[in-house]
């Protein structure tokens, strides 16, 4: 595949794997997050992330890799292309499969932006800022707010995604030659939500309407109002 450095005209496809909602966000349960909200919040996070990504001017399409029928219906209605998690072999296999599918759909001139779905505060304008900073043919990534994991990994046209998500993936991506994108002005892209404390941080940063609605309804139910 020919390599070509990304330019201002490079279109990007966001590849977003979404786990079956029944098994998602197991770390989110805590005193402030009742179990019945877990699945609804997992779907709301993905809804807000996909909605915001579709508003970014550099994003040509969003590809969701999921076997969950509800997530497929809701995210497909937003305009995302849905494909099943054919490898069914975990997160990195889903990302690699999605990257290959994105290039088959959009052609080799597409950049692949691999993104977690649990980014309810994601802002399209900040995604455009990050994509504008991807230079050359190296993979770039964004570390999570804890500086341990990874929320997004960018593969310019002609570059293999080679995802190393999971656990301390910031170090794994650096060791694999990927370049970390700096920036205090892209904090909405770093705020993934795994725990109740992460959710409090995301709410402070400002979540999208789907997450805000689920959270408000959950709080009304809890207070009996
Ligand atoms: N398609 C697909 N998506 C996955 C898979 N594993 C994780 N994801 C997605 O990858 C992103 C990051 O995953 P995690 O933060 O580990 O999410 P999680 O597994 O729902 O959360 P925990 O149960 O707390 O570990 C989320 O958007 C998940 O939906 C998988 O095997 N297949
Ligand atoms: C998959 C990852 O994160 P987490 O499971 O903590 O969301 C990661 O940071 O690579």
TrEMBL record:
Catalytic activity reported: phosphoenolpyruvate + GTP + H(+) = enolpyruvoyl-2-diphospho-5'-guanosine + diphosphate
Residues annotated to bind phosphoenolpyruvate: 150, 166, 169
One term of GO molecular function: nucleotidyltransferase activity
Tree of life domain: Bacteria
Pathway as given in its UniProt record: Cofactor biosynthesis; coenzyme F420 biosynthesis
The enzyme's E.C. designation: 2.7.7.105
Class of this enzyme: transferase
Alphabetized UniProt keyword annotations: GTP-binding, Nucleotide-binding, Nucleotidyltransferase, Transferase
UniProt cross-references to InterPro entries, sorted A to Z: CofC, Nucleotide-diphossugar_trans
Matching NCBIfam families: F420_cofC
Protein task: Guanylyltransferase that catalyzes the activation of phosphoenolpyruvate (PEP) as enolpyruvoyl-2-diphospho-5'-guanosine, via the condensation of PEP with GTP. It is involved in the biosynthesis of coenzyme F420, a hydride carrier cofactor.
Similarity field: Belongs to the CofC family.
Protein name: Phosphoenolpyruvate guanylyltransferase
């Amino acid at each position: 595949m020919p390599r070509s450095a990304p330019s201002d005209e490079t279109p990007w496809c966001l590849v977003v794997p979404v786990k079956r909602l029944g098994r998602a966000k197991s770390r989110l349960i805590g005193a402030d997050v009742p179990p019945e909200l877990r699945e609804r919040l997992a779907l709301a996070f993905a809804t807000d992330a996909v909605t915001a990504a579709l508003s970014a001017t550099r994003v040509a399409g969003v590809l969701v890799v999921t076997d969950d029928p509800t997530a497929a219906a809701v995210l497909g209605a937003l305009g995302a292309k849905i494909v099943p998690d054919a490898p069914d072999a975990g997160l990195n296999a889903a990302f690699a499969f999605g990257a290959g599918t994105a290039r088959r759909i959009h052609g080799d001139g597409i950049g692949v932006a691999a993104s977690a779905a649990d980014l309810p505060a994601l802002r399209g304008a900040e995604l455009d800022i990050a994509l504008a900073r991807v230079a050359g043919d190296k993979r770039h990534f964004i570390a999570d707010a804890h500086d341990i994991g990874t929320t997004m990994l960018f593969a310019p046209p002609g570059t293999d995604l080679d995802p190393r998500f999971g656990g301390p993936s910031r170090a794994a991506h650096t060791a694999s030659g990927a370049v970390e994108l700096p920036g205090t002005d892209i904090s909405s892209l770093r705020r993934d939500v795994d725990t109740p404390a992460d959710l409090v941080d995301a709410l402070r940063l400002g979540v999208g309407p789907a997450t805000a609605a689920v959270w408000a309804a959950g709080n009304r139910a809890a207070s009996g109002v």
